[in-house]
């Protein structure tokens, strides 16, 4: 009798654990999604207004340094079969209201060092 109860409990546990993948979990995106094409439009000496027009408002503006903007994007996958979690970051440094330097996870265009004025 005890063996039979144990067998039923083990069988039920195995069946329920097999159903764990049936639960739908949504992906959770957070931050500014940046397209590579938009990032490649950036040029040295662009103003803050021009950058905002191309990329939108930054997620974070440094409270202590108003000349640094952060564009962050993070994707937390609900299910592993849809891909891995990832995070992308773009940090724009301004000098006298113009782009001075860009760092982050995006490749800049070959024309980045050519100002739009020329």
TrEMBL record:
Gene Ontology CC: Bam protein complex
Cited InterPro entries: BamE, BamE-like, BamE_dom
Signal peptide: 1-20
Membrane topology, record value: Lipid-anchor
Major localization class: membrane
Keywords: Cell outer membrane, Lipoprotein, Membrane, Palmitate, Signal
Domain spans labelled Outer membrane protein assembly factor BamE: 31-102
GO molecular function, one term: protein-macromolecule adaptor activity
Compartments reported by the entry: Cell outer membrane
Source taxon at top rank: Bacteria
Gene Ontology terms: biological process: Gram-negative-bacterium-type cell outer membrane assembly; protein insertion into membrane
Protein's UniProt keywords contain Metal-binding: no
Pfam families xrefs: BamE (PF04355)
UniProt similarity note: Belongs to the BamE family.
Protein function: Part of the outer membrane protein assembly complex, which is involved in assembly and insertion of beta-barrel proteins into the outer membrane.
Summary of subunit composition and partner proteins: Part of the Bam complex.
Record-given protein name: Outer membrane protein assembly factor BamE
Organism: Paraglaciecola polaris LMG 21857
Gene that this polypeptide is encoded by: smpA
């Amino acid at each position: 009798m005890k063996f039979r109860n144990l067998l039923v409990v083990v069988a039920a546990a195995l069946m329920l654990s097999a159903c764990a993948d049936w639960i739908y979990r949504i992906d959770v995106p957070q931050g500014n999604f940046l397209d590579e094409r938009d990032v490649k439009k950036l040029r040295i000496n662009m103003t803050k207004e021009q950058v905002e027009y191309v990329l939108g408002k930054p997620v974070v503006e440094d409270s202590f340094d108003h000349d640094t903007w952060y564009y962050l994007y993070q994707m937390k996958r609900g299910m592993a079969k849809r891909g891995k979690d990832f995070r992308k970051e773009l940090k724009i440094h301004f000098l006298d209201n113009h782009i001075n330097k860009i760092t982050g996870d995006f490749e800049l265009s070959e024309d980045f060092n050519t100002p739009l004025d020329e």
